[in-house]
Amino acid sequence: MSKQHRSPDQYPYPVFRIGIIGGGQLGRMLVKAARRIGCTCVVLDPTPESPAGQVSGRQILADSHDPDALQQLADQVDVITFDIEDIDVAILSTIAQRGHRILPPTALLAEIQDKLRQKQLLLRLGIPSAEFVAAEQPDVDSFARFGYPLVQKARRGGYDGRGVVVMRSAADFDQALPVPSLIERFIPAAKELAVIVVRGQEGEVRSYDPVEMCFRSGENILDMLLAPARLPAATAAAACRLAIETVTALEGVGIFGVELFLTQDGELLVNEVAPRTHNSGHYTIEACITDQFEQHLRAITGLPLGVTDQLMPAAMINLLGAPGESGPPVIRGLRAALAIPGVSVHLYGKAETRPFRKMGHVTVLDADIERAREKAEQVRSLIEIGGEQD
Fold it and tell me: Which residues does ATP bind (predicted)?
């Protein structure tokens, strides 16, 4: 076919070249999804044989704040995205001004990666969220004036429960983080929810059903996820509407994880927004027609968004490094876990384990959500990621 008569629905191979800043587990699963739709990936990460680099086959060994390395990445790909939020937005903005595509946009990342600016943005947009104030230099008096119980969040760098402290009373102030922060009203939530939302380049928005996030008491890392959330239909629909409203107002492109509180009074509040694929969406790999990783790629490349329908209820647990163990990982109980019907194990390929490090996850499918939950609990009792050093 001659060039002038080429169909607009015709692509060379690879269909798109994707640059991923960050080589962790999110990037790893993004690379796997990219291969399915004919895309190749180049990963930028300072760790040799990073989880994403192992499967992409192409990795630039450099830090995400290295301007030369970021430009090198941009020169090799059609679009850049990321699996981390600790990125130098100023450098990326300069690269974008040179004509390179970066999605979600750097201006939005600048607003979201700073937790205080994110909360201020949600407030300006009229998105319901917990009351908050800035705490640039945390001190006893300012916390007392705001009132307990409260939650302190570091403005930058928090993830997987780090950078967040719940204080029930002034007696807990000695746990305060000595960094620029915000403090917000503690919400005694009936449930903590998440809605994965995708927005395309033309403004089309789709959401997955709300999921229920369960946390161990006193910890801020996801313990178990149930999909769909055990909610009345009207509440689930309201959660989807709020999440879609939030992402639409942000004018983002790609996948967004919108974390919500369902208060004991039945009110829905946005907790945080993540401008990337999200831990709460891992279940979609097995449970949904289009998983969150392929969906993100469709959005940032301009391909049609996929159907978000869920095929079967699912429960998901994170596989964390065992307490007191470190070094090269040793997976215990794998055969027993895989013998349970409906179990899928995902290991992230990390060369070293340490206590509570995310080393993988397990998704369990079952026609009944309670049976899926029970099987996930069984898997948790069987499988453990230990280390050769203890």
Answer: 115, 153, 184-187, 192, 271-272
**pLDDT tens, position by position, 250-278:** 999 999 999 999 999 999 999 999 999 99
Ligand-binding site membership of 352 (annotated): no
98: its two tokens: 């040179």
Q: What are the structural domain ranges in the chain? A: 3-102, 131-185, 189-389
- Pair of tokens at residue 259: 């974390």
Q: Is 184 annotated as a binding residue?
A: yes
The CATH T-level fold of domain 189-389 is D-amino Acid Aminotransferase; Chain A, domain 1 (3.30.470)
Is 3.40.50.20 the CATH classification of the domain at 3-102?
Answer: yes
- The reply, when asked if residue 212 is annotated as ligand binding, is no
pLDDT tens figures, 113-162: 999 999 999 999 999 999 999 998 889 999 999 999 999 999 997 666 67
Residue 136 annotated in ligand binding:
no
- The answer to whether the annotation marks 87 as part of a ligand binding site is no
Find out whether 38 and 11 touch, Cβ atoms under 8 Å.
yes
Question: Is 358 annotated as belonging to a binding site?
Answer: no
Instruction: Flag whether 272 is marked binding.
Output: yes
Residue 86 Cα distances to 109, 112, 294, angstroms: 10, 11, 23
